[in-house]
Amino acid sequence: MPEHSGTDRPAGRTARTREAVHRAVGELLADPMAEVTMATVAARSGVHRTTLYRRWRTAESIVLDFAVERVTEESPVPATGDLRADLTEYVHRLLTTLQRTGTSSLLQALLAAAAQTNDAVEIGDIMEPRVRQFQAMLDAAEVRRLDGSQLVDLVLAPSYLWAQFGAPLDPDAGTQRIVDAVLAVAQWKH
Questions:
Q1: Which structural domain, as residue segments, surrounds residue 168?
Q2: How far is CA 163 from the centre of its chain?
Q3: Three-state secondary structure of the chain
Q4: If pLDDT is split at 50, 70 and 90, which confidence band does 4 have?
Q5: How many CB atoms lie within 10 A of CB 165?
Q6: Number of domains within the chain
Q7: Once rounded to an integer, what is the mean pLDDT over residues 60-64?
Q8: Which residues form a coiled coil (predicted)?
Q9: Which of 22, 94, 155, 175 is the most exposed, fewest CB within 10 Å of its CB?
Q10: What span, in angstroms and rounded, lies between the C-alpha atoms of 35 and 24?
Q11: Are residues 90 and 140 in the same domain?
């Protein structure tokens, strides 16, 4: 029988649990008649409700965790050192994704989950990976006038706002508009 360190086995189990829960949440969000609750996630994922409450505390936290992982996987942030090229690639991919069928239901679930989550630290934790990725993009391009959290304001906020209004920005024209705005701010002198 192979030996396992104390961290090997739980990490594997934890990863499998998270994967099953995320798969269940994705299926529930794709079904306009389904509701994402601890009970429905437990039933669909096969993960006991006690585990869900211990790990995530609320259904809203599960939705937020799912959304962050999905966005991080589907839309990595490039950091080649060419800010215009990196922004253009990232923003175009983001705007294209926001036009996909099913994205608006995820956005609505994400907004509802964020509104229901009372833990401000949790919201900050959710944004932190993207802020770090944006900061890496800026660092690679040696841009000092902006930071990763400002890119959230300049790139993500308008992209998601228009998508939430049901009028996602055109990937080509919207990309140019957002990239030009970010570069103008990056070059602006006080």
A1: 75-187
A2: 15
A3: CCCCCCCHHHHHHHHHHHHHHHHHHHHHHHCCCCCCCHHHHHHHHCCCHHHHHHHHCCHHHHHHHHHHHHHHHHCCCCCCCCHHHHHHHHHHHHHHHHCCCCHHHHHHHHHHHHHHCCCHHHHHHHHHHHHHHHHHHHHHCCCCCCCHHHHHHHHHHHHHHHHHCCCCCCHHHHHHHHHHHHHHHHHCCC
A4: very low
A5: 9
A6: 2
A7: 84
A8: none
A9: 22
A10: 11
A11: yes
Are residue 154 and residue 112 in the same domain, yes or no?
yes
Based on the fold, state whether residues 29 and 81 are members of the same structural domain. no
Is the CB of residue 65 less than 8 Å from the CB of residue 129?
A: no
Rounded to two decimals, the pTM is 0.70
Place of tokens 């993500």: 156
Q: Domain with 51 in it: what CATH number?
A: 1.10.10.60
Whether 125 is covered by a domain: the verdict is yes
Is 127 inside any structural domain? yes
The tokens for 1 are 């029988």
One-letter amino acid for residue 100 of the chain: R
Q: What is the dihedral of CA 97, 98, 103, 105, to 10 degrees?
A: 170
CA atoms within 13 A on the CB side of 103: 21
- The CA distance from 81 to 105, in Å, is 35
162-155-121 Cα angle (round to 5): 95
pLDDT confidence band for 165 (50 / 70 / 90) = confident
- The answer to the question of residue 68 being in a domain is no
